[in-house]
Each structure stands twice: as C-alpha cells, then as structure tokens.
Amino acid sequence: MTEFAYTARNLQGERVTGSVSAGSEREVVSILSSQSLFPVDVSAEKVSSGLQFTRRVSGQVMAINYGQLASLMRSGVPLLRSLGVLREQSSNKTLQHVLDEVYHRVEEGATLGEAMARFPRVFSELAVNMVRAGGEGGFLEEALDRVAKFTEQYEDLKSRTTGALAYPVFLMVVGTTVVAVLIVFFVPKFATIFDNLREQGELPVMTDWLLWFSESVRNWWVLILAGLIVSLVLLRARVATEAGRRISDLIKIRLPMIGGIFLNLAVARFCRVLGTMLHNGVPILKSLEVSRDAAGNRVLAEAIEDASENISGGQALAAPLRASGYFPLAVVEMISVAEESNTLDRVLVEIADGLELRTERRLDLFVRLLEPIMLLVLAAIVLFVVMALLLPVIKMSATV
User: Fold this and answer.
1) d(Cα 160, Cα 165) in Å, to the nearest integer?
2) Total domains present in the chain
C-alpha cells in the first residue's frame, strides 16, 4: 500500500485535502467517490526519511501493545485516548515515537489502518490489513485481539525454531572454521611435496583440485569476499522488487523438505484471516482481498486473486483454489464441503488450526534431522580433504 495525498471538493464545493492508503491512483479515486468527494489532484506522498528508517520493534512488544489496545477499546475507552495511554506508558523509544505519529494521524482524520501503514518496519502487513478490515467491518477490537494472538504465535514459533537451530548453527560455524583452516593453512604445505607427482602426471585428480582450490582461496580471497558481498546486496535489492518477491516466494514453497512448511504456514494464515472476517460479517470479496495480503506469499496471493474474480462471476471458492495447484487437496475438499453446508467461516479456522499443528510437527522433525545431516556433510568434506592428501602419500610410499 502507498500513501497518496489528495485534494478534492465535496458536494458543497468546498476544498478538502488529506491522504489515504491505496494500491493505485485509480483506487484512491474510487475511495474518494464512495465518500462523495470529487478528486482534483492525487499524488503519491513522499515519506520522510525519519519514518522510512524507523527501527524495528520486537514481536513480543508489539503483541502486548495490540492486546492492550484491544482491551482498552473493549472497556469503552475511545481510540485516540487508548493510543495516548499506550504512547505514555511505552518504554520503547521507537514505539513511543511511532505511536505518537499514529496518534496525530488518527487525530487528523485518518483511520488506524492508514496510520499504521506508514510504518511497515513496525506494523506487519498482516496487522495493517486486519486492522483496516476490522475498522471497516466494525470489529476493530476483535481484529486487534487476533493480530496480538497471531504475532504471539509467530514469535513463539520463531523462538522455538531459533533455539532448536542453535546447535546445528554452532556445528556449521565450527565445521566451516575447521575446513577453512585446513584449506588455507594446512593444505598448501603439501604443494611442494606433490610437485614430482604432478610433473609425472600421477597426482590424483581430487588432490590436484584441492591444491588448486586452496591456492585460489589464498590468492583471491579479497575478490571472492567482495564478490559474495556484492552478490548478496544485488540479491537483496532484487528480492525487494515485486517480481523478485514473487520469485523468492515461489522458490520458498518449492524447496525440498521445507517448501511444504512455508506453503502450509501461508495457507493457514489465509484460512484463519478469511474465516475470522467471514465470521464477523465482512463480505467475501472484501475478506478475500485482505486475507490475500495476509497470506504473506505473492504466488498464493495471485491464486486467491483469481479465485476472487471467479467468485464475482458466481462460482464457488474451492474450484479456483484447486485449479491453482498450490492449496492442499484436503484443504480444498474441506472448503468445498463447508461452502455447501454454509459453515465456511468455522471450517476455515479449523483448517488453520490443523495446518499450524501439523506444520509445527514437521518443523520440529526437520530441525532434528538437520543436525545429523550437517554432521554428515561436514564429515564428508573433512574426509575428502584427508583422502586427497593421503592418496599421493600412499602412492609415493608404494613407489619407494
């Protein structure tokens, strides 16, 4: 979503200015028309560098703030006063600054979702879309509660995964260091010893390749390091684009072993958000629009967008989802049956619960398998180095 500044005139001919978050200028015109405003000028609003480079705030802190805001509003405290309370009690300077900006934006007439959209490094896309939908559908408190639970679940999953990966990462770092020391400092000492065998053409291929690799790393390590850094920077810039994000999301769901984990998590997010919004009476097309962005995967979002077009043409939801090939068959069948029995909102939440549970189990299994796999890989590399150095020695001993 982009922030657009607009100048318009109302039915009385008075000049009205403001800003709105939308995907395009055409969408801005549509939003203004629905508010009986006639746009005179619409332009993308430049975001100040201070907002652009806002520091991130931890998910746990954000989950607590979403929950507190929901509790205050449920108790009858107005939105502006609730934001003021959170701003005053926040001990995080970055969040305090952000809440202050959000407070002033809402005070000027912007919706909470529009104000939050200005800080993508603090408020996730899911949070912004859920809050925007909650504001439009009249269930803002429940939307904030849901966002708090989503954020807390995500942070819990991330912390458990990080803890489980600590030992494999330690193994990788230690193993990589050992192999690097062997190749850079230990292997070159054998180069002069094996010169005679190389001249006679009897040096094993694996030994010759190891010596060449060791010499290349020692002589060109600066260029290799610079090349890696430049490649990472270019890759990151590419992924930041819309086309690059789509390719990245496609690769994620097609990776061996873990592709299914990424896919199931995205489908679960989509089902939970869609089910929640349908339960609160939001029309299905609007619910699909929000849940599409909440999925967090561009490939899935395209499939859901196609489904929206089919639904607007009078078709069911299950058929286009099945045709996309990205939604598990069991999920599609459950959606199909739920549509027939008019229990889609409840079944979608149940699907999300089941997918998240199975995904957590698969993730735990993957992490457990990762440790022995890394040990085997490191052992294979060390074995290769040892064999490459021992084979010439054995051949020289046999010759003597």
Assistant:
1) 9
2) 3
